Amino acid sequence: MWIRTSLDHFLNIFLNSKTMRRFSIFIGLLVAVCYVSCESKQHENKEETKYLVSSPIQMDTSITKDYVCQIHSVRHIELRALEKGYLQHIYVDEGQHVKKGQRMFYIMPNVYQADLQKAKAEAEVAEIEYKNTKLLADGDVVSANELAMAKAEFDKAKAEVSLAETHLGFTDIRAPFDGIMDHLEVREGSLLDEGELLTKLSDNSKMWVYFNVPEAEYLDYITSAKKNEKQQVELLMANNKKFNQPGVVETIEGEFNHETGNIAFRATFSNPDGILRHGETGSILMRVPLDGAMLIPQKATFEVLDKKFVFVIDENDTVQQREITVGAELQHLFVVEKGLSVKDKVLLEGIRMVRNGEKIHYEFEKPESVLSHLDLYSE
């Protein structure tokens, strides 16, 4: 009885082990089938992925170039004392708008008034002597030479009067034009020397904006078909906002700076609201035409060590990495100088999903269509 019980127990263990082995084999087969199926599906999905491809487009366009600039008043002068004396009155203040002919400074005039009175008295004496000599000359009492000498003395006296009046006028300093006062360099009661600086005055009704242009760009500008037309420009102020008035390029200086290789352009801007002041800085924005420029979307490029590249699809539908040279930048676009032709097919999307030398499936879209909804691609 004991022997039979042991045999039954052994058979149960054997059968259970065999069943477990079969179950393990079944599970292994099932896992293998699932893995192969997943791999097949992944491979199938990868093959079915289609990438969007387009070509560069060649067309006439324009770019906006910016140049650092210096802003100057159309008239910016120094007001200096033309006579020596004490500064008796200051009638204006710093930053004040003044009108042409408005009194600004007054130098104590006592000495100059006395000189004028003296000159007038001497002129009266000279006039009397001239008249008496003329009566005598008419009666042939004195010679014509004596009459001429008297006339010369009288003319000289009158000139002295004019000179004294001029010196006296220099004590009353008035604005030579409408403008804005700068810093006051003197105070009331100061003893002024002849030629001493009083302040500066700026006429800001128009502004002259100077900016330097490289030689190559100057040559492009001067040889363009529109060289006789005044080039319109914009001014980007220091707060990164555009000035509300357009400007025009009016003059170009006569020679290049041999140290920088640049030449100075001057643009003129109206300043009706008085926003611009002498000495400000900013940037001139000038549109430059590009004939037959080759354009590609910026989204189609990537950078490696500060160099720009694109993926080009060859005749075998294989992705090839190619370096390009960018000449200018537009909104969502690059102007390509070297590296591409209009016949090349450039990967537009999925740049991070492909590898160099990989064969892909793609869908080609005409470059005109790409440009029409480029904002959508750039998001």
In round numbers, the mean pLDDT is: 85
Number of strands: 19
Radius of gyration: 45 Å
Inertia-based shape: elongated
The number of helical segments is 6
In the sheet with the most strands, the strands line up as 2-9-12-11-10-13
Helix-residue proportion = 25-40%
| Cα-to-Cα separation, first versus last residue | 86 Å
Structural class: alpha+beta
Q: What does the main sheet amount to?
A: 6 strands, antiparallel, barrel
As a percent range, the share of strand residues is 35-45%
Sequence stretches where pLDDT stays below 50 over 5 or more residues: 1-7, 40-46
Order of helices and strands: HEEEEEHHEEEEHEEEEEEEEEEHH
Mind explaining what this structure looks like?
With 379 residues, the chain is of the alpha+beta class. It has helices at residues 2-48, 110-138, 144-169, 215-222, 367-372, 374-378, and strands at 50-54, 57-80, 85-90, 97-98, 103-107, 172-174, 179-181, 191-192, 197-214, 232-237, 247-252, 262-270, 281-297, 302-304, 307-313, 319-330, 333-338, 346-347, 361-364. The strands form three sheets. A six-stranded antiparallel β-barrel has the order 2-9-12-11-10-13. Strands 6-5-3-8 form a four-stranded antiparallel beta sheet, with no helix packed on it. Helix 2 (110-138) packs antiparallel against helix 3. The longest helix has 47 residues, at 2-48. 21% of the residues are buried. The model is unreliable at 1-7 and 40-46 (pLDDT under 50).
Give me a quick take on this structure.
With 379 residues, the protein is of the alpha+beta class.
